[in-house]
Amino acid sequence: MSAALKPIPRWADIVLLPVLNLALAFIVSGLVVLSIGQDPLAALNAITTGAFGSGYNFGYTLYYSTNFIFTGLAVALAAHAGLFNIGGNGQAYIAGLGVIVVALAMQSLPWWLTLPVAILAAAAVGGLWGFIPGWLQAKRGSHIVITTIMFNFIASAIMVYMVVNVLKPAGILAPESAMIAPEGRMPKLGAFIPFFKNTDVNFTLLLALVCLVGVYVLIWHTRFGFAMRALGHNPTASRYAGMSNSKIIMIVMTLSGALAGMVAVNQVVGVQYRLVLDYVADAGFVGIAVALMGRNHPIGILLAALLFGALYQGGNELQYVIPGLSKEMVVVIQALVILFTGAMEGLFRPGLQRLFMALTPRPKPGAVEASSVKSGS
Q1: What's the CATH code of the domain at 147?
Q2: Structural domain of 116
Q3: Are the beta carbons of 183 and 111 closer than 8 angstroms?
């Protein structure tokens, strides 16, 4: 009988395994590009240059990455409590209502006064949209995946009604709210850093970095974080330890929805300067892949969000550099990255376990017996 496989080291699980999965995803993507008669190395160079080749390109990479950090953190926070929050899209979308109401009401004030209130409004509305599915699971036993999916559709319907019938000014045909006055608009980073001139990256990037640190501290350095992880590992044990599983579920889902709601701050106050339909652009679903690839750790989420931001921005440039490759090819690459880092993330795990077991020196039987006798005496 073969010996039981031991877990791989923590660093290998967080760094080495995702790198191997990512490399395999790019190899398969290269084969797909080659199969349609295009040069995979040229395509990779076009995506890399389009994402990092200039301050303009890198600025837009960071802009996309900002949204993915928020939604990735939302998924990861819930995952540590054993919850699969698939409703980041709806939570980020509905939070736009809170942001635009605050921004229009305070648009005559400086942006640095409007921004904190807009952040609180986005957290409140997005948190409420996450709290309701949490309450339904905690108190009624409704599955969190089903309810969050349904709430994505409900949020979409509410937003269409509110934008078209309530917020759209008279005389405007486009389904959008009134524009925020220039005084209330968050400035772009390009106004302070010339390297990012003419890009949409703004101060919400700094908010995303603060959220990364805050989530790390919350999960691993607070009593609530310990209770949350205990619930995720063993709900029965956490309940017998005196923890209120229902309370933890509701709080975690509220915090998760609040994190997803920060996407609305980036889009409404920092980029669009108004509320438009479908501004989330499936950032909530990309956040699932970001959290999976980042192993639900803030550092991993930062790197994964940067990767997907680069794929989005590089994909925008790819179709112009190589006419034979459309933007849909980047969607294929993204799908392969999700496949190998998410659904098939354990593909290399058994091989790595055997490799590390083979490289780890085993104690000699005589040494083990001697140490046992010495400890017994």
Answers
A1: 1.10.3470
A2: 10-376
A3: yes
Helices (H), the chain: 10-11, 17-35, 40-52, 55-80, 88-105, 111-140, 144-161, 204-220, 223-233, 235-240, 245-264, 283-293, 298-321, 327-338, 349-359, 365-376
Q: How far is the C-alpha of 139 from the C-alpha of 127, rounded, in Å?
A: 18
- Do residues 129 and 155 lie in contact, with contact meaning Cβ atoms separated by under 8 Å? yes
As for how many domains the chain has, the answer is: 1
Closest CA to 184 of 66, 105, 276, 263: 105
| pLDDT tens string 182-225 | 999 999 999 999 999 999 999 999 999 999 999 999 999 999 99
Instruction: Flag whether 265 is in a domain.
Output: yes
In a domain, 3, yes or no: no
Q: Rounded to 5 degrees, what angle do the CA atoms 213, 219, 225 make? A: 145
* Look-up of token digits 């990512």: 22
Contact of 150 with 288, CB cutoff 8 Å: no
Separation between Cα atoms, residue 88 and residue 95, nearest integer Å: 11
Query: Cβ distance 212 to 73 under 8 Å?
Result: yes
pLDDT tens digits, one per residue of 108-122? 999 999 999 999 999
Interatomic CA distance for residues 312 and 365, integer angstroms: 56
Is residue 5 included in any domain, yes or no? Answer: no
Evaluate whether residue 1 is within a structural domain: no
